[in-house]
Amino acid sequence: MSVQRSPQEPRMELLSLDQEEIQWLCRITDQLRDLKFGSLHIVIHEGRIVQLERTEKHRYDMNEAISLYKEKGGKSNVTTKSGTKKSRK
């Protein structure tokens, strides 16, 4: 049976980390800190962390974007389901 620890309680394993491991933990937490939607990939080579790859997702309301674009005098081309293009102004 495993012992349940509170998130604030330090684990004994953390006390045995070397400086490089602590640096990677800091880098990982820094990358996760303000990530709202996306992923963080940890790349391992020969048993060691060598790279962090962060992907963020940003979703926008297309109708709002078209309205802002038209306010600035632009035209938006929209492809219909039949495949024909029609111009909006």
Q: Which terms summarize this structure?
A:
3 helices; two-stranded antiparallel sheet; 4 strands; single chain; 89 residues; alpha+beta; two-stranded antiparallel ribbon
List the topology elements.
Layout: H1 12-15, H2 19-33, E1 38-45, E2 48-56, H3 62-71, E3 76-79, E4 85-88
Antiparallel strand pairs: 1-2, 3-4
Structure description:
- By secondary structure, the chain is α+β, with helices and mostly antiparallel strands.
- Helix content is 33%, strand content 28%.
- The chain has three helices and four strands, in the order H-H-E-E-H-E-E.
- It has helices at residues 12-15, 19-33, 62-71; strands at residues 38-45, 48-56, 76-79, 85-88.
- The strands form two sheets. Strands 1-2 form a two-stranded antiparallel sheet. A two-stranded antiparallel sheet has the order 3-4.
- A hairpin with a 2-residue loop joins strand 1 and strand 2.
- It is elongated.
- The relative contact order is 0.09.
- The model has no long low-confidence stretch (mean pLDDT 81).
